[in-house]
Design brief:
The radius of gyration is 30 Å and the shape is elongated. Helix content is about 0%, strand content about 55%.
């Protein structure tokens, strides 16, 4: 504040450009100058030019004493209490949550209220207030929980048999592709593929019944840069009493481009479980192929025309069932495959993760055993080559299992989850966002609440710390499962699975979008 303590009129002029900023100050009058940043400010009198002065602007660093609430939804209000925020919001000041700007709605020297922004970065927890270039971060993180945006369900009302969404993928325009199975008029499941627009409206739906009209099912889907969809599953062919691996490529408008099916050397069941596509249009199929040693762990590479490039199989030490359940590919066309192998002494299933180069040469193998039924069900790889695997391991009795490896197969962290009921909990799907946050879905048994399996979703930080958990319990209090998950660049989370809304029918296809 500048006070005219003399007997004459004065005016305050900025020394830098000569502009009058105060108007005439009569004797005893005052002018308050607001500095937008620390520094030196030169002034002179506009009436008496030889009279000059200097102001030194400085700001004490802000402090944060509390934030409220510590957990909330995007779009809600966050209150920040502290000191030295400034009476008004000036230049060089602001609030960020997870490095995302949060719009302030109330600003005083001791309290700020802001709106929690939507977006993936907003949920990694760090709340920072910056005043005049001085930042301060609160000691406890804020966790932004997701908000349901829309939900879609589907069943064959004429049959009311079991229907399920098993896989989900996105294209670059935000369209959503879901694959699974839906019951036909005979009560047997058909392969089911659907494309939704970003608002959840149906673009097209494709059903496929195998020639034998038995149990046919899509288990995986991937989408390339042109919006072509690659679907993998199992199908009974005409005249065959056994399942075969089934592969089909659809155009972005749902047209069938080509179809392939194959199996192992024996006339026994074969399983197509996973698919991934690289930037060149090559795609990769993971599954189990029948052999003289039960199932063999299998991965096949196709080029963009559907021509087989290479095919790799692995037979575990017990010559029994070994199966690949999922596959991912990185920017260098290295291929990551996970599933399980059967080992002695009690024919346990051990989690098996393998990395191949672009030519199909094995680079490394990792296993995990809890001495029971341990299986990997989903795998993803990020831009740095870190590998993320979800599944389940023997626990009390079965626990969700999540592990992050570096590109060389070294374990970075592992997380498990056992529900309060200490019952059967499974991890089926995994996704990674652009910040390295990890999303896992599956189901948890909540017999302690009188509920069967509920859809279970958990978000982890890049270092494996749980950030939030969401569950969904359908109307029948049982039979709800999250089977696949993906996340877009804006932090929207998409889940596919099944739900049981009434005991008068069997499961329905269930797809949900959450905003963060």
């Amino acid at each position: 504040m500048i006070i005219n303590g003399g007997q004459l009129n004065h005016s305050i002029v900025k020394g830098s450009d000569g502009s009058a900023i105060s108007g005439v100050l009569a004797p005893g009058g005052s002018y308050t100058f607001q500095a937008n940043s620390p520094g030196t400010y030169n002034f002179r009198c506009g009436i008496h030019p030889t009279e000059t002065g200097v102001l030194f602007g400085s700001f004490p660093p802000p402090t944060i004493s509390s934030i409220s609430p510590l957990t909330g939804t995007a779009g809600s209000t966050l209150t920040i209490n502290g000191t030295n925020f400034g009476a008004v919001q000036m230049g060089g000041t602001g609030v960020t949550i997870g490095n995302v700007n949060a719009q302030a709605t109330v600003w005083s020297d001791t309290q700020i209220q802001c709106t929690v922004p939507f977006g993936t970065g907003a949920t990694n927890g760090n709340v920072t207030v910056t005043v005049a270039g001085n930042p301060v971060t609160f000691s406890s993180p804020f966790a932004a929980k997701p908000v349901e945006d829309w939900t879609r369900t589907e069943n064959n009302n004429a049959i009311n048999d079991s229907d399920s969404a098993n896989a989900i993928a996105l294209d670059g325009s935000g369209n959503i592709y879901v694959a699974g199975s839906i019951s036909n008029a005979s009560g047997n499941p058909d392969i089911w593929v659907r494309k939704y627009d970003p608002s959840g409206n149906i673009s097209w739906t494709k059903n496929q019944a195998g020639g034998a009209n038995l149990d046919d099912e899509a288990r995986a889907i991937a989408v390339d840069g042109s919006g072509n969809a690659y679907v993998v599953g199992v199908e009974y062919q005409t005249g065959s009493p056994q399942k075969e691996i089934w592969v089909r490529k659809y155009s972005s408008t749902g047209g069938v481009l080509w179809t392939d099916s194959y199996g192992g050397i024996l006339n026994a069941d074969d399983y197509g479980n996973g698919v991934a596509v690289d930037s060149a249009g090559n795609f990769y199929v993971a599954g189990g192929k029948s052999s003289g040693q039960g199932l063999n762990f299998s991965v096949r590479k196709y080029d963009f025309t559907g021509t087989v490039v290479w095919d790799q199989e692995y037979n575990g030490p017990d010559n029994i069932d070994d199966e690949a359940t999922c596959v991912a590919v990185d920017g260098s066309q290295n291929v990551y495959v996970a599933g399980y192998e059967t080992t002695s002494p009690s024919n346990w299933n051990d989690i098996l993760v393998r990395k191949y180069d672009s030519s199909g040469t094995l680079l490394w193998t990792r296993t995990n055993s809890n001495m029971g039924e341990d299986r990997a069900k989903a795998i993803r790889v990020d831009a740095s080559g870190n590998v993320y695997v979800a599944g389940y391991v023997t626990g009390s009795p079965t626990n969700v299992w999540v592990r992050k490896y570096d590109t060389n197969g070294n374990t970075l962290w592992t997380q498990t989850y056992d529900s309060p009921a200490n019952s059967y909990d499974y991890g089926y799907g995994i996704a990674v966002d652009v910040f390295g946050n990890v999303y896992v879905t599956g189901d948890e048994e909540r017999s302690d609440l009188g509920q069967g399996p509920n859809v279970w979703i958990r978000k982890f930080s890049p270092t494996g710390t749980p950030i939030w958990t969401e569950t969904y319990n359908g109307g029948a209090n049982m039979g709800d499962v999250g089977k696949a998950i993906t996340v877009d660049a804006n932090g929207n989370v998409f889940i596919a699975g099944q739900t049981l809304e009434s005991l008068a029918q069997l499961s329905d296809i269930w797809v949900r979008k959450y905003k963060q």
